[in-house]
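Notes from the 1:1 (GR / supervisor)

We went over the backlog. Supervisor wanted to see one worked example end to end before approving the batch request, so GR pasted a single chain during the call. The sequence is below; no edits were made to it. Supervisor asked that the structure be written out right there so they could see what the output format looks like.
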Amino acid sequence: MTCRLLSFALSCALLAGCGAASTSRDTARGYALDNLACSADADCCVVFDGCLTEGLIVLAKDRDHVADLLKSAPQDMCTACMNPALQARCEKGVCTGKIIQEGTSCDYNLLQPFVTDHCGSIALPTGCAEVSPTRGSALRISCGGTAH
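Structure output shown during the call:
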């Protein structure tokens, strides 16, 4: 029993504490909510968390604030993955994220604009396609196209 408690305590310490206060990353993720109302693609932005290689779909008015929050977030447990290529869209009056899928004729080198912070949609390179995330919400999309 003592060993289990010690193991649990160590796990909590490694994960920055059980019930630890939320970080600026958690606050930033709070801006990537369902039902972000929009009227055009330009109302929606992708902001990347370079540490966790995750794209957040947020409103244009919140873009700079979310980017600042992510820059100040802990950088000690980062992934070793590339940002997913994402498009910000306004569909049926709600912001959503789309993954830019590489095809046989889609050159990843042409996707640089899609892996950096941007607002609105960007013209797709020839041979590339937009697809919906593999599961979950289209507002937090990580490396590999998995939505959270």
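Supervisor's comment: Residues 40 and 143 are 26 Å apart (CA to CA).
Batch request approved.
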